[in-house]
Amino acid sequence: MTTAHHAPGETRPGGRTARTRRAVLTAVSEELADGGFATLTMERVSQRAGVHLATLYRRWRSVDKLVCELLTDMSSGVPLPDTGTLPGDLRALAHGIGRFYGADRTRGLIEAVVAAAARDPQAATALRDFFDERLVLAGALVRRGIARGELPADTDPEAVMAALGAPFYYRILIARRPVEPGLAESTATAVWAAARAGAYATADHRPAGAPEHGPYEHAPYDDAPYDDGAPGRGD
Fold first, then answer.
1. CB 179 within 8 A of CB 98
2. Whether the Cβ atoms of residue 72 and residue 130 lie closer than 8 Å to each other
3. How many Å apart are CA 95 and CA 81, to the nearest integer?
C-alpha cells in the first residue's frame, strides 16, 4: 500500500542510496527463494547484493528488518484508494489485495515467512511488524469514513482493515487455493455491512459481555444494497 512513509533503509528516493536499497532487497528476495528464512543471514545478503556488511547493519540492523522492508516494498503495489466513499474504498482496496496476493512471488514469500514465524522469533517479529504497519496505514480509509459520518464514531479502523484482509490470508495460507476474482467483492460487501452494524467498535465502547470482535447493537443496520456509487452496479 503506497504511502509517504520511508522504509528503514531508504533516506532519499534516488541516487546511490536507492540503488543500494534495491540491490539489498533483490538479494533478500533471492536468498529467501533459495533457502527460506532459516538460511537468511546478513552476511549472505551482503555478499549477494555486493553491499558492505557494516552498511547493512547500520541501515537495517537485523534480518527481520530486511524481511519487513521487502514485504513493505512489495506491498507498495497496493495503493490506498480515495474514491470519496468508504464502500468504494473498501472495494478498490480488496481488489488490490486480491491482485497482490494472487501473484506467485508474493504468495511464496508470505508462505515462507509465515512458516518461519512459527519457529523463529525474528521471523514472527518481521511478520507482526509488517501487518501492524499495514493495518495502521490502511486504517486511514476508515478514519475518513468516520469523519464523513459513514460509520459509528467508535469504529476501530485497524479491526475493519484486519477483517478486509482476513479472507485472503485464509484462502492462500489455510485453504491453499487461488484468490478468485469474486472474493474481493464478497469481502468488501461483508465488511462494509458489518462495520455499519457496529461490529468493529473499540473495546472501550463494547458492552460488558459482548464478544471482543462480534457484532452488537450500536448503530442501525443499513440493509440497503451495497453501493459504492459505480455505474452499472445494482441496475
1. yes
2. yes
3. 11
Phi, psi dihedrals of residue 155, rounded to the nearest 5°: -65, 135
CA gap 132, 161 in Å, rounded: 11
pTM of the shown model: 0.68
Scan for cell 490506498, then name that residue.
80
pLDDT tens digit string along 34-85? 877 778 899 999 999 999 999 999 988 888 788 878 877 877 767 889 999 9
Which residue has 558492505 as its cell numbers? 52
Which residues make Cβ contacts (< 8 Å) with residue 47, sequence separation at least 6? none
C-alpha cell at 22: 534495491
**What one-letter code names the amino acid at 112?**
A
215: cell is 457484532
Write phi, then psi, for 201 (nearest 5 degrees).
-70, 150
